[in-house]
Design goal:
single chain; 109 residues; mainly alpha; globular
Length: 109
């Protein structure tokens, strides 16, 4: 039985591209700047590859969230503690649910 979904090769190519963004090194940018740069690209992937079996994209979208979390911990020293960071991230997701396109499908917390 054939079930259309993103291919392993396409997922690997996209993962390489996300890693090449080196988000955790962009501490000079704000969260809004990152959202502005990333959202059109990720939204396109979600529309194209997520038309069928969107669950195959979830690991990739979670990985992008992980990179953003690493960015926040690098930029804001006060967020290095796990409890403090968890509260901040949960509050951010609640305050600005439309900040990142992928939050419509995948939340970190």
């Amino acid at each position: 039985m054939f079930t259309p979904a993103i291919s392993a090769a396409a997922l690997k190519r996209i993962s390489r591209e996300v890693r090449a963004w080196r988000l955790h090194r962009s501490t000079g940018h704000t969260l809004g700047d990152l959202a502005e740069a990333i959202n059109p690209i990720v939204r396109g992937w979600m529309q194209y590859y997520g038309a069928f079996r969107r669950s195959r994209l979830y690991p990739l979208l979670r990985r992008i969230n992980t990179y953003l979390m690493r960015w926040a911990r690098g930029k804001y020293k006060r967020l290095r503690g796990t409890r403090t960071f968890s509260r901040w991230w949960a509050g951010l997701c609640k305050r600005e649910p439309d900040l990142f396109a992928r939050w419509k499908w995948v939340r970190a917390f």
